[in-house]
Amino acid sequence: MISEYGRKDCKHEWRYCPDWYVEECIPTVCIRCGALGCVCDADDSLGGYENRLPREVFFGEQQKKDANINGQWINPYVKGDGSFDLSKYYIIENITDLDGNTRTDGRYPQRIGRRFKFCMEPQIGSCMYLEYCPRNGERYMGVLRTSVVQGSQLTITGGEVITTLNSIYYLEPEMSVE
User: Fold this and answer.
1) Across the strands, what pairs with 164?
2) Rounded to whole angstroms, what are the CA distances from 47 to 68, 112, 148?
3) CA 93 to CA 173: how far, in whole Å?
């Protein structure tokens, strides 16, 4: 069903912003059904930039990846048979400072163990954006915006270690969906 704002409505506890066309309000895609929604209506407990994506993410390369085929939004994180494509999901295993000490300040401890998908692959010199995904019954949604990425390397297990200006993120691929 198309709403009065031109979006496909979705029944997955997703709220829509009536001002999605305003520059401050950035549209995104529901991870469960592919419906077009709005990041600013996600859980606002994070506040600040962590709940917003830059406009070019969804009006540039990302829009090509989330292809709109015959008027249908295609969710790139769900396979054709309806099952999740686990190769696209990661878990934050640990976050340390640049000296290797686990971050215990601010919201860092709450981020460990969360499931997310990359909004765009991390690029050196740019911020990294991770879109949180619900898991284990948690209704947590939103976007984590890191500081500028300084480097990235793959691990033996298929994960990634991403170094930013002030933190090191240890990311592991998710092996199962609860």
Assistant:
1) 149
2) 30, 18, 19
3) 10
Burial 111-137 (b: 16+ CB within 10 A, else e): beebbbbbbbebeeeebbbbbbbbbee
Q: Which of 44-48, 70-74, 91-95, 122-126 has the lowest mean pLDDT?
A: 44-48
The domain ranges of the chain are 86-173
Average pLDDT, the chain: 62
CATH for the stretch 86-173: 2.30.29
pLDDT at 72 over 50: no
- How far are the Cα atoms of 52, 61, 63, 87 from residue 55, in angstroms, in the given order? 9, 11, 11, 26
Q: Report, as an integer, the average pLDDT of 21-44.
A: 43
3-state SS assignment for residue 142: strand
